[in-house]
Amino acid sequence: MNPYQPACDALGHIQTLLAKSKVHAQYLPLISEWQDQLVRQMPTVMLYGNYNAGKSSLINLLVGDTVATEGEIPTTARVHTYHWQGMPLLDTPGINAPMAHEHISQQQLAKTDLVLFVIRNSDVDDADIYRQLSRLIANNKSVFVVLNCESSKPEDISLFHRQLMDHLFTELPQMGVSDSQIELLPVLPLNIRTAILAQQQQQPELLKYSGYLSLAAELAHWLEVHKQHHWLGSLYTRMEQQLFEPLLSQQQTGNDALFTMSAHIDYLSQRKALLKRSGAAKVGSLVAARRVDMHSALEQSESLALLSQIQADISEQAAQWLQQQLDLVEQVLLYGDSTFASITEPKQNTSNELINQMQLQMGNCLKRADKKHISALLSTLKKADLPLFRQLSAKQIGQAAKYGGPALQALSAVWNLYQGYASQGRENEQARQAATVIARQLTQLSAQISRSLTQQLHQFIDDAFSPRIKCAVAKKETYQAELGEEQLFQQELSEWRNELRLLCLKPAEADKMA
């Protein structure tokens, strides 16, 4: 069988596979180019010899049908193309014919891979045959000498063969052909008439007796050698480099990309949780660090302004800390991984924006808590049986809470009352109880500040990370769906790759590349 046709068919299947895939269309022109090369480079077999040597009869024998005109009068004035097992089979005008068509045969010889030089046994003494044969050998053409025997008797065939070999070893050395070259020259005796008759009558033994099977075996062997040593192997190397390696390497690339996406999502989720835990601890430490300042501020006449400034300082420090943490995350994403550069990132708050928002919302939170905290504080002081608060009614407590201002004002007012007690020299057990109550209320207020500020930090962290995580998860899901289709494509492509490897390479080379 023609060694190029199966490879051409395999490329056709790959072409269909690529056409179905919407992302690999850029490889289709390569497939078409290789198919054209295979068609152009299919080995051609040309029949050559004297005009009446039996070339057209041999064509009919190989094709298995009467397709070429036979006769003593030269009938082939141009090159006729037939096909034997899918391979072009060329019937050319004979040499030494009465009609000057020999130049047509000479032109075709330059494009022929194998020459079947047909010599009739009655022409073995024609010196021009050996001159033509020596030219073919000098030009490194693959040549089979087909000795068309007019007798089927074994003794006659043996005689004809011996006569031809004598002439070959006599004539060719005079024309520069070495004995070793002659020894390698296949000489195949064949009774073409008997072989055609055996085909028509379907007589396998007669076909073997004619010498046809030996010719067919030699042709098959030449085709195998031609397949292994010709350009088909180099063509397959180009297929590996330009088609299979780029496409099949994408499988590992796809898996790597999927792993990177998962790692990216894990990093964002873990960083988000870590920042929330760290943020809560950071806020607690900031508030604790300023607790003494808050207590000292109550001793001042402008305690409300001082406490407000402390709260603003804590908010600013927390915002700056969060912005630093977000900047670190940005650096990791920017320099540690470029896979997700195409993700649209939500705009991040600047440090000043964070500070302003946190201060505003902290102030609102404190204002919302004022009345409750003031009422609780005054009720506690009344229960402590302090003289100043002993006679307070529920209505008076409510009014004090309503008009007492922010919770910080309540602390300041209580502290002033406490200071009044001290200045009157009434520092007794009740005064110490009042101080204890103040300290407890200060602790509660600190906790409220910590909770409110932590909630704001958590909200900012969610706003920074959640859109990123959502976008990355969506991209991963889309990529997974595409990767599933791609894996099926690569599996089929791998199968055709293996098929082409076996068709184009020697078994040892195919095993090595597997």
Automatic annotation (TrEMBL):
UniProt GO cellular component terms: cytoplasm
SUPFAM superfamilies (alphabetical): P-loop containing nucleoside triphosphate hydrolases
GO molecular function, a single term: GTP binding
GO annotation terms (biological process): tRNA methylation; tRNA wobble uridine modification
Residues annotated as domain G: 44-148
Name recorded for this polypeptide: G domain-containing protein
Source species of the chain: Photobacterium aquae
